[in-house]
Every structure is written in structure tokens, then in C-alpha cells.
Amino acid sequence: MGDRAMPFTRRGLAGLAAGAALAGAGPARPAVAQGAPLKVGLMLPFSGTFASLGENIAAAFEMHLQERGGRMGGRAVQIVRLDDESNPANAVQNVNRLVGRERAEVLVGTVHSGVVMAMVQASRERGIPLIIPNAGNASATRELCAPSIFRTSFTNWQPAYGMGLALAKQGVKRAAWVTWDYAAGNEATEGFRDGLRTGGAELVRELKLPFPETNFQPLLAQIPGLNVEAVGAFFAGGGAVQFVREYAAAGLKDRIPLCGSGFLTEGALGEQGAAAEGVRSALHYGDGLDNAKNAAFRTAFRGRTNREADVYAVQGYDAAQLIAIGLDAVKGDVGAERELSRAMKGARIDSPRGAFTLSPSHNPVQNIYLREARGGQNRVVGVAAEALADPGTGCRMA
Q: Is residue 49 scored above 60 in pLDDT?
């Protein structure tokens, strides 16, 4: 424990997984200055591969703040943007800048699961409220959970579980899974296997290649001989575009249906083209989701940015809603840790994805929608898993 402005180190970050005893430990806090603006640090990628994700998260967060007249908990809010470039090597330095020089009282971020670990460490050691609006690594709300850490996105396990469960409900008994061999891919694999198993089906083969390699041909060549009824996949970005294209080009699409965690087609349909048509995926958001909140949100976001809203914008908007609920409950006093955490934990978020609550480990309990790629959109065709909570395995806070 120590002063909030004191820097933490990469050594501390490396030992984070073993530092569960620090969970919830918080330093003495300075008194809230009367009338002082509340500084919220948005640590997101504003350049590089994930820049569009960071921009949509930030734009939607700021949109909700504007809807509230620029205030939360009775205090004017000052946004401090910091571009983390999705670079884990600079993550500790960037967090130190936000909580040190910039004196941010609340942290929001980020997209990259490796970068978010520095923010998790800062939150655990100093009790600074952290809202994670994307990074899906399960550990942040499992073994590294803390009263000050909340997520408005997902764990990698959740969408994949929904996809596996939906397949089993459709009568599939045997399926294979293809992914990169890294933490996110392995967590998604676990979810897919668990979903299949819950529905009475079986994951008969995992096919993996090192991250971020894209030589898929040796894996695709194995699929016809697996005697499976479906193939699931977890890829994102350029890798997802190439995999879906090559799966179709190999003549597999019409023989063994391809499906996946929603990021297989999210934001990729334009480049995937006809190869993605009919591919099913599972995610906590989808195009054409029919509810009044979503309709109003999409109209407002389009008007503000001249872009269509996506899952990243929804997660950013809900991050602002969640922290506003907490700050309203404590009248802007971020130092009231227990009361702030209790209010956020008990929140019911009126989200464009549909209302959701939070699990004991502070992860969304949310519908996972079944989507189908049609005409360039991921159209919602059903609910793959209703009110799904991450297991929160290893979280000792609950």
C-alpha cells in the first residue's frame, strides 16, 4: 500500500498472478477537493491495429457523459485520453502517467489483454476504480478479481460457451475448434468445450497454431478426416478475415458448417465477403438487436461520430453508465471505496445489448446472442445462452 501517485513497477506486474493477497488493499486517500473536477483516465489504443476499437469506446463513453451534462456524482468530469498503442511494454509507464502526473481518480481501459494487466495491478494495489471496456482475459475477474475492478465487456469464455451450447441444442454431437495458441484462444477453447458438454456434445479435436501465424492450410487439411459436424473458431482482425476466406476456398464451408466466437466475423464482414455468408457466431451484441435503448443509442452514436455503433461502442457506453451509478451513490467521493464498489456491484445497466447485472466477480451477466452473417451484417437470430455469467473461477472476493 502507498500513495496513489507512487509508481509501481514491471516487477510487480510480473508477480501479479501470485499477489492475490493484495486484492482490495487500498491506500489512504486524499480528501475530495470541493468543486474539483473528477479526472477519468481513458487508456485505450488510439493508434495502430486496434485504433478504431479505442475510438469507438472513447466516443461512446464521452457520449454518455454529455447526456449527463458532463457530470457524475455531482462533479464535473475531465477526460484524460492516453494512447496505449496496444503495447504491453509501455503499459506500466502509461498507467503511472495517468495515476501519477495526471492524478486520474478513475481508470477506464483497455482493448489488449496484455496491456490491461498493468491497469489491474494499479487498481489492486491502490484501490483505484477500474472499468474494463473490452479486454476479455478471464484472470481480471477470476483469480485477480478485486473490489475495485469491474468489466462491462465479456470474458473470452462467455461467447465461445454460448456457441458450443447453441450447436449442441441444434443436435450437433461432434465438433472441432481452431484457434491461435495463446491465452485468449485457450480461454475460448475452454468455453466452447464447456458449452458443448453442457448440451451433451463433444469437442473431439483442438487445432492450434502459434499467435499470430496465419498459415492455416495444414490445419484445414486435417478437418475432412475428423468426422465432425461443425467447426468452431476463435480468430479476430486480419487473421479472422483470412481464415474465413481460406475455409470457404478449401471447399469446407458447404460440407462442415463454420461457426465461432463473435469476433470471427465482428468488424470483418466487409473483407470476408461471400465467404462469411451464413457463418454463425455468438456474442453479447449483434446487428439489428431490437430494443428501444439500442435504437436510440445507434442513432445518437451515428449522429455524434458519423459511424455505425458496434460492440466496442456499446461496451464504452456501458462503462460510463456503470461508473456514473457508482459515483452518484457516493456523491462523487471516489475515496468511499466500499460504498462505491457496493453500488457498482448492485447496478442494473440499461444497455443497448439488453439490460444486464454483474456477477459476484464483477463480470456482466448477459445474454449471448446467436448471430448469422447475412448481407454484410451479423444479424441476431436467437439467444445462444440467456443471462450467462462467467464462472469466476478462483475469485476469492465473492
A: yes
